């Protein structure tokens, strides 16, 4: 196997059972890649792969349940498969939880990344697409943030991603054989338009969209809005939401571009448009036809007022831009929740048949 494949064909996806990872598997399979997945299912389920196969028309090449920090188990995967490149999603990602469990977040996110790099180097695989986060910018200031904006992380999750980026930059500086494309995406949301794949976290959702959807079907009584005293027009936090299908399309384009790249390159992924929590709430009510009860609570530890992307660099370099808007995200997230009221554990319902929880209003 060559040190730098001209066209990666077999791709290892870490965290491939997760929200973004599972959608990435579909995108890669649809574009002819062979996909190998490793995941520990800490916030996902192996049941997702039957749905991936149903959408893509073919199954991933192999799936391994393992902890990304287990170098021996990970090395065995590389021994069995001719991996050309890696897309690294596997990580803990809840901002609030990270403030309560900082050591775990550094161990899994940074330790998992360094373990992966060791194993990749041992097997001569030095092409990586890294899933980073806009959270590294933290309290960086107002206005769209470009890739040169200084890092000011405000929580252990964000700090762990910033540390991973620093490690990757050092690796590329010391060994020119490495190619790393680091994608700092803002807030992925929505679901696959089929309604077969979507965000289904274990326990209480940490992200806005699955929480809204669960309130919409009556699984939860109301949305908790973390603070209405932020320095924003309506007092609620502003984020740049990006459809998950746009997110994974950008990762696939990154894989396509690996052969034309060298060293480490960082790109923001976002729409360049900020939406407040109340903006998203209103859009979701329009998409679902339901009133979503909500309550204002205290700010969440580690949050910031606003994060909006300047994503001009990736557009200039690759000609890539997201094509889906907030209404698309709300529509697709709602479709997923309607067809899967209990998440990914059951069989998806047929369109037009929805489960009604006690206290839930009629479908719109």
List the helices and strands and how they pair.
Layout: E1 10-14, H1 19-30, E2 34-39, H2 48-56, E3 62-65, H3 71-80, E4 85-88, H4 95-100, H5 102-122, E5 127-133, H6 156-174, E6 179-185, E7 187-189, H7 208-216, E8 223-226, E9 238-239, E10 241-243, H8 244-257, E11 263-269, E12 275-276, H9 277-288, E13 294-297, E14 306-307, H10 312-318, H11 326-339
Parallel strand pairs: 1-2, 1-4, 2-3, 4-5, 5-6, 6-11, 7-10, 8-13, 9-14
Antiparallel strand pairs: 9-12
Helix pairs in contact: 1-2, 1-8, 3-5, 5-6, 7-9, 7-11, 9-11
Largest sheet: 7 strands, parallel
Let me know the number of strands: 14
Helix-strand pattern: EHEHEHEHHEHEEHEEEHEEHEEHH
Report the CATH architecture: 3-Layer(aba) Sandwich
Shape, principal axes of CA atoms: globular
Offer a concise description of the structure:
One of its GO terms (cellular component) is cytosol. With 364 residues, this protein is α/β, with parallel strands linked by helices. It contains eleven helices and 14 strands.
Structural notes for this entry:
The chain is α/β, with parallel strands linked by helices and 364 residues long. It has one domain (10-344): 3-Layer(aba) Sandwich (Rossmann fold). The chain has helices at 19-30, 48-56, 71-80, 95-100, 102-122, 156-174, 208-216, 244-257, 277-288, 312-318, 326-339, and strands at 10-14, 34-39, 62-65, 85-88, 127-133, 179-185, 187-189, 223-226, 238-239, 241-243, 263-269, 275-276, 294-297, 306-307. Strands 3-2-1-4-5-6-11 form a 7-stranded parallel β-sheet, with helices on both faces. The protein is globular, with a radius of gyration of 20 Å. Residues 1-5 and 352-364 have low confidence and may be disordered. Residues 11-270 form the NAD-dependent epimerase/dehydratase domain. Pfam families: Epimerase (PF01370). Its cofactor is NAD(+).
